[in-house]
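wait is this the right file?? whatever heres the structure
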């Protein structure tokens, strides 16, 4: 099941650095296998921060067993310029999330689904979400991009979430962009 792209990306969390995507997937698999009756949400989201001479992008991958725990990691990408155009930055954030979502091939998604499938009548669930750091509020500068970005995430077969429900992008990833 190893994918050629597995080693192109490097992830980290508080316990480990230099984690390949293959290792990330194995962590997610083991996390879900530890409770096949769980209510799982696999979430991917990216946030960015413009700094003096570069822009930092952080993509978070979070597997949540509602009410019972979480495993998470991040991928950091530095662009050596200030990305000041909001649409360009939001679009690039989404591209980075799409890149990671695409690593969850049908074969990989089926492996995860098959963990909970025997237990769905006992309440086990699995969903995959794309968290987009945009909001629909009148005061939100990103509201004009909602339809475009949501459509992109839906086209990938992932349930889009925007603020305030996009916490992987707006809270978890945001924490590491500073």
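ok assuming it is, sequence goes like this
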């Amino acid at each position: 099941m190893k994918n050629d792209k597995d080693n192109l990306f490097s992830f980290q969390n508080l316990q480990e650095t230099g984690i390949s995507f293959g290792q990330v997937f194995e962590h997610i698999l083991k996390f879900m296998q530890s409770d096949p009756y769980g209510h799982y949400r696999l979430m991917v989201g990216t946030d960015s921060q413009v700094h003096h001479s570069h822009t930092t992008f952080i993509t978070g991958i979070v597997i949540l067993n509602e009410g019972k725990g979480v495993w998470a990691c991040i991928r950091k990408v530095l662009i050596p310029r200030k990305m000041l155009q909001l649409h360009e930055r939001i679009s690039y954030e989404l591209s980075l999330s799409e890149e990671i979502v695409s690593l969850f091939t049908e074969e990989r998604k089926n492996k995860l689904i098959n963990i909970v499938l025997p237990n769905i009548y006992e309440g086990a669930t699995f969903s995959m979400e794309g968290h987009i750091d945009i909001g629909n509020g009148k005061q939100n500068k990103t509201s004009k991009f909602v339809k475009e970005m949501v459509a992109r995430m839906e086209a990938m077969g992932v349930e889009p979430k925007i603020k305030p429900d996009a916490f992987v992008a707006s809270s978890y990833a945001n924490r590491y962009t500073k």
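The two ends are 35 Å apart (CA to CA). so i think its the right one actually
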